[in-house]
Amino acid sequence: MSNGTSSVASGQDVHPQAANAAPRTPADPGVRSILRRETKSSRALAAGVAAFLVIAVCVYGLLESALRAIGQQPWLIDPQAAAEGLVKLPEGISPLLLGAIGAVVVMFGLIFLLNAVLPGRRARHLLDDPRLAVVVDDEVIAAALARSARAAANVTQEQVMVVVSQRLVVVNVRPTSGVPVHEQRVQSAVEDELRAMAPSPMPAIRVNVAVSGVIGA
Questions:
Q1: What is the pTM of this model?
Q2: What is the 3-state secondary structure (H, E, C) of 132-173?
Q3: Domain boundaries, given as residue ranges, for the chain
Q4: For residue range 26-46, what is the model confidence (pLDDT) as tens digits?
């Protein structure tokens, strides 16, 4: 998944599908450009939506102006009446409705502003390698961590779910009824596996052991 989203995996095995660049040092400008492209999400969708909204408003305004110029009835709102209404605000409109409209406008403005300012990220991590530029999907990391957690907890693959985001790994374990799960052992196993992979940035780890267990086969 993308733009700050997370990847989820249960205990099943997944073969890594890493994108390897040519054997050059990561300091190479070409490699850095590839890594940025592989780990940053595109702004094309947000830019396209913003452009569509602006074009739609402009076309609508041109349509209403053309209808008024030829003496026809407005399609929805007369431009002059709309301008006069804006000048007279907040007269003639309920304060509650005006507040709701303002909140919606602010919400859309914040969405576009945050999309423009915050760094968009794909659900991927870089792996530390002195010879290669390696980019791995978070789903692959989640599967590897789920496998380690499953072995440490001695449970089946359906009883472990791992969620990997940019800064946090959440390991959810459902124990088998009557068989306790040592949370610290699972934590250590996941930490060792994550340390061996050395993803960048290195996420924190949180292990959750469910109170209720499942009936063993």
A1: 0.55
A2: CCEEEEHHHHHHHHHHHHHHHHCCCHHHEEEEECCCEEEEEE
A3: 7-24+138-209
A4: 555 555 555 565 556 667 777
